[in-house]
């Protein structure tokens, strides 16, 4: 049976931060599911960096169907989770079932990948205390407020947790995550 990995996301997730791990993990042989607050079509966005702007810009990206609603997720069905960034983590962090899923993976010490604004969900779930995490650099204060140690890197590994800053880190982020999956003896 093919091992399953769950991506926790929602509307306004960063397109590249959803699709890169989605397809890279499929390529590695995993059955990848998209989990969201509701099982419906999601609207992703594209964040880009433009000279002269103090922060990123946002444009509409691709749409994609969620496979499962958070409330219907049995975390034991999955070997790992991925939390992409974009604006989705800003509101899914308030979802009790999203928090439940995240806490399950930390309690079981199973592989977790998060990038960009994804660590906002980890902070809300209360799992960053004493952990080293990267994130979009402007979220350093959020990681530290949650009791974590911020590291400005592209493939930061702290035990079962692999984090990155944003989509420009996708390659180093997923390379490190695949190594953690292999180390956990999680094979597709």
TrEMBL record:
<protein>
    <submittedName>
        <fullName>DJ-1/PfpI family protein</fullName>
    </submittedName>
</protein>
<comment type="similarity">
    <text>Belongs to the peptidase C56 family.</text>
</comment>
<dbReference type="InterPro" id="IPR002818">
    <property type="entry name" value="DJ-1/PfpI"/>
</dbReference>
<feature type="domain" description="DJ-1/PfpI">
    <location>
        <begin position="4"/>
        <end position="179"/>
    </location>
</feature>
<dbReference type="InterPro" id="IPR006286">
    <property type="entry name" value="C56_PfpI-like"/>
</dbReference>
<dbReference type="InterPro" id="IPR029062">
    <property type="entry name" value="Class_I_gatase-like"/>
</dbReference>
<dbReference type="Pfam" id="PF01965">
    <property type="entry name" value="DJ-1_PfpI"/>
</dbReference>
């Amino acid at each position: 049976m093919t091992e399953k990995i769950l991506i926790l996301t929602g509307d306004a997730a960063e397109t590249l931060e959803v699709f890169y791990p989605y397809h890279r993990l499929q390529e590695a042989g995993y059955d990848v599911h998209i989990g969201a607050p509701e099982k419906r079509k999601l609207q992703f966005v594209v964040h880009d960096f433009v000279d002269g702007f103090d922060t990123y810009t946002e444009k509409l990206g691709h749409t994609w169907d969620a496979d499962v609603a958070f409330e219907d997720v049995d975390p034991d069905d999955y070997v790992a989770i991925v939390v992409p960034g974009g604006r989705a983590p800003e509101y899914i962090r308030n979802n009790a079932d999203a928090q439940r899923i995240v806490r399950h993976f930390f309690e079981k010490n199973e592989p977790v990948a998060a990038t960009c604004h994804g660590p906002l969900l980890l902070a809300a779930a209360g799992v960053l205390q004493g952990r080293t995490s990267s994130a979009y650099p402007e979220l350093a204060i959020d990681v530290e407020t949650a009791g974590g140690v911020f590291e400005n890197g592209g493939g930061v590994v702290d035990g079962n947790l692999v984090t990155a800053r944003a989509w420009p880190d996708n390659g180093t982020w997923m390379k490190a995550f695949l190594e953690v999956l292999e180390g956990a003896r999680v094979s597709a």
